[in-house]
TrEMBL record:
Species of origin: Cyclobacterium jeungdonense
InterPro entries: NanQ/TabA/YiaL, NanQ/TabA/YiaL_sf
PANTHER family linked: EVOLVED BETA-GALACTOSIDASE SUBUNIT BETA, PROTEIN YIAL
Name listed for the protein in its UniProt record: YhcH/YjgK/YiaL family protein
Amino acid sequence: MILDTLANSKKYQALHPLFEKAFAYLSDQNLSTMADGKYEIDGDRLVAAVFTKPGKSTEEANEKFECHDKHIDIQVCISGKESIGWKPRENCKQVKGDYNPEKDVSFYADAPEMYFGMEPGQFVILFPEDVHSPLIGDGEIKKMVIKVKI
């Protein structure tokens, strides 16, 4: 997991061949005026989703404690304040249901080991080994999630 501000995004472009294109896309957009919806950046290799949702309680968010096998998430806070639960996948022991290959998601019944906050202008990179429960907060949260195909 990597947590930083969009101003520092160039530091991470070399970590994956598609990160440079993903961060260039982010810098070219007026995130605050983007409509909710899906945006194709580079075919199915790089897809963004913008959504605005009410924040969830910690308990409610932890019901969907998730990770992905075939994608890296770049999650960007556009407005509101969000907390995200996190735990390394290697420490998760309680698989919750079967892996869903269509949605590329696995769920766990484990509890996060830690929580971190995100404010507008910050992003987190979540790799397949990062189990996470997003959208914890009060009020409305607008964010973008870019799915980077591995």
